[in-house]
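hiii so um. not sure if this is the right channel but i have a protein structure encoded as tokens and i wanna go backwards to a sequence. like what aa goes where. can anyone help
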């Protein structure tokens, strides 16, 4: 196995890779056996990641970080900083000064949180399913109501002979109003 920083990509290396076996899976297995859990594919487009993932699973390392440096149709000015950020989050010592220049490092500004509840007070009406075509009535917070029905129980005019018990299509029926409720299909 080559050590970090060692030159391995000379002209003879590339000639050997085009004419002889590469032993890629063996190299990935050795990297995992040596304790590495983050691997970076350095190629014009990530094509070996799937093979690396299969090897990671086969040697019991399903949580390995498999990253890429470049990707087709994505500028390297986007992929390289993204790779560095992922490596930094994974614990690698990244020198961001080499990328962004020297300067003071400041903490990210804190986010003021607006505490507001978003839970709805809408509740199904008591009594369970009414057995009607409309389905179960649900009371909404503003005093209106809606009907909820499973799609496979609603008859469909466009598929009369199939697609569920009554030839259903995906959707729900919604009723609005105080007592009379108008029904509209919402797809």
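sure thing!! here u go:
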């Amino acid at each position: 196995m080559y050590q970090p920083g060692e030159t391995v990509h000379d002209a003879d290396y590339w000639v050997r890779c085009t004419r002889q076996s590469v032993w890629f899976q063996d190299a990935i297995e050795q990297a995992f056996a040596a304790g590495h859990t983050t691997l970076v594919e350095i190629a014009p487009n990530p094509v070996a990641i799937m093979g690396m993932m299969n090897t990671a699973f086969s040697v019991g390392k399903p949580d390995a970080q498999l990253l890429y440096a470049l990707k087709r149709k994505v500028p390297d000015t986007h992929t390289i900083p993204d790779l560095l950020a992922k490596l930094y989050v994974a614990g690698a010592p990244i020198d961001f000064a080499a990328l962004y220049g020297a300067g003071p490092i400041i903490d990210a500004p804190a986010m003021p949180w607006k505490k507001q509840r978003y839970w709805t007070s809408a509740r199904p009406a008591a009594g369970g399913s009414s057995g009607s075509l409309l389905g179960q009535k649900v009371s909404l917070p503003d005093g209106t109501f809606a009907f909820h029905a499973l799609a496979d129980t609603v008859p469909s005019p466009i598929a009369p002979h199939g697609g569920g018990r009554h030839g259903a299509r995906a959707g729900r029926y919604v009723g609005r109003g105080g007592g009379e409720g108008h029904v509209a299909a919402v797809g």
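oh and The chain has a mean pLDDT of 77.
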